[in-house]
Design goal:
- It is built from two helices and 16 strands.
- The protein has about 290 residues and is mainly beta.
- A four-stranded antiparallel beta sheet has the order 1-2-3-4, with no helix packed on it. Strands 5-6-7-8 form a four-stranded antiparallel beta sheet, with no helix packed on it. The chain has a four-stranded antiparallel beta sheet with strand order 9-10-11-12, with no helix packed on it.
């Protein structure tokens, strides 16, 4: 892009000949560049162009990540405290970009972003440079992120990060547990471990009396058709906030039994080694509702 600086933000996906790189342009351009390779050694770059706005100039300036596929790219730029700069959603085919929408995050200070699927849940990690704070969002619906949790290992007075630069990346992912590394310029590096609790188990004991019988079926019948607001006492067996045929299937499978009891969530810390600028470790868990 003529007159633009490239590379303030970078992301990579794949490996070997399937590797792709994406690099954001600075505030004079609303685009980004994608680099592909045929052998994992030599790369060819192409500017992804959008026919209009949005995206706006600088939307991929301070945060960029591949999302659900190699052709999905999300970007973030810092914003003010009143008008929060949105997360910009896009896709590309060759050198042609398509604007897919925008999503509002918590703070205009969130800049660096990274996407990963952990325990079957699509997540976005975002770094707020104003507080050196990591926020984790459930992005099952990309345009409506749901804040799962937030944390930081930083303490004391924060040094200025006027350039709004930094990076955040998911590290090792194993089942429902992921390591996350974050760096806000002048704040050092922090490492955090995220563990998502198991979703609630299916349960057709709608009256909570310890068994699944005809009384529970009557509750299901009365609640049948409720959408978006249902809970267990309405006949919602799979915790998707609806009472429908899926709940009847669960009732039939559990009829004559004691239903299902969801156990408590336990978080077991594990030690992490110090590295680079005194990485600290923080452990936290978040309970995710079952998606419909």
């Amino acid at each position: 892009a003529a007159g633009a600086r490239i590379g303030d933000t970078l992301d990579v996906i794949g490996s070997g000949a399937a590797t792709r790189l994406v690099a954001g342009y600075d505030a004079v351009s609303n685009s980004y560049a994608v680099f592909t390779t045929g052998d994992g050694l030599a790369y060819t770059g192409s500017t992804v162009a959008f026919s209009g706005t949005p995206p706006n100039a600088g939307d991929f300036r301070r945060g960029i990540t591949f999302a659900a596929s190699v052709n999905d790219v999300w970007g973030k730029k810092p914003g003010g405290t009143v008008a929060l700069a949105p997360l910009t959603l896009s896709s590309y085919t060759g050198s042609t970009g398509t604007f897919l929408g925008a999503a509002t995050l918590t703070s205009g200070g969130e800049t660096a972003v990274d996407y990963a699927v952990v325990g079957g849940t699509p997540l976005l990690a975002a770094l707020d440079i104003n507080a050196s704070l990591v926020r984790i969002y459930d992005v099952t619906i990309p345009t409506t992120p749901v804040l799962v949790t937030s944390a930081t290992t930083t303490s004391g007075t924060l040094d200025s990060n006027g350039n709004a630069t930094g990076s955040i990346k998911f590290g090792a992912i194993s089942g429902s547990t992921a390591t996350i590394y974050a760096m806000s310029t002048n704040q050092g590096i922090q490492a955090l471990q995220l563990t998502l609790a198991a979703p609630p188990a299916d349960d057709a004991d709608f009256d909570g009396d310890g068994d699944v019988d005809g009384n529970d079926f009557l509750i299901f019948q009365r609640g049948l058709g409720i959408t978006g607001t249902a809970n267990l006492s309405d006949g919602d067996a799979n915790d998707d906030n609806d009472v429908d045929a899926d709940d009847l299937v669960i009732f039939r499978a559990q009829f004559g039994t004691g239903g299902s009891v969801v156990g408590a969530v336990t978080v077991i810390p594990e030690p992490t080694a110090a590295m680079l600028i005194g990485i600290a470790a923080l452990f936290f868990s978040a309970r995710r509702r079952r998606q419909g």
